[in-house]
Design a protein that fits this description.
Layout (H helix, E strand, L loop, with lengths): L8 H10 L3 H14 L12 E2 L2 E7 L2 E7 L3 E11 L2 E10 L2 H32 L1
Length: 128
């Protein structure tokens, strides 16, 4: 972020995921539900962001969880300064062999898409 952004961590995550272009949200959902096989909540479910359960949400920190037969996923978004946000992704394997194969294929895409979505959310905030 190149400016002071007063949004909460949850607002930043929502801007990155829910305000992404529709085609990209669909691709992310397909990857999460059908490739990673996360059991996501309905998109409009309260206390969820794009189907991921909100575990905790403070102004500067949000933790989201998704789980499925292959993996447990945890996303941690933190505001470390008014102009800096960090996203951490944690995965643990429930079925190690299959999960490792799938995550090895998906991880490079995740490492490209996640920062893109955060940058896009930051640009949208700067434009306001």
């Amino acid at each position: 972020m190149s400016h002071t952004d007063t949004r909460s961590a949850e607002e930043m995550v929502r801007a990155g995921l829910q305000d992404a272009p529709k085609w990209l949200r669909i691709v992310v959902l397909i990857a999460h539900r059908h490739v990673l096989r996360f059991e996501l909540a309905p998109l409009a479910a309260p206390n969820h962001v794009l189907g991921w359960e909100i575990l905790t949400a403070e102004h500067d920190d949000i933790r989201l969880r998704a789980t499925g037969p292959l993996l447990h996923g945890l996303l941690v978004a933190r505001r470390v300064a008014p102009s800096t946000a960090v996203l951490e992704t944690h995965v643990s394997y429930r079925r190690p062999v299959m999960a490792r194969i799938i995550w090895t294929a998906v991880a490079p895409i995740h490492r490209a898409v996640a920062p893109y979505l955060l940058r896009r959310a930051a640009r949208a905030s700067a434009a306001q």
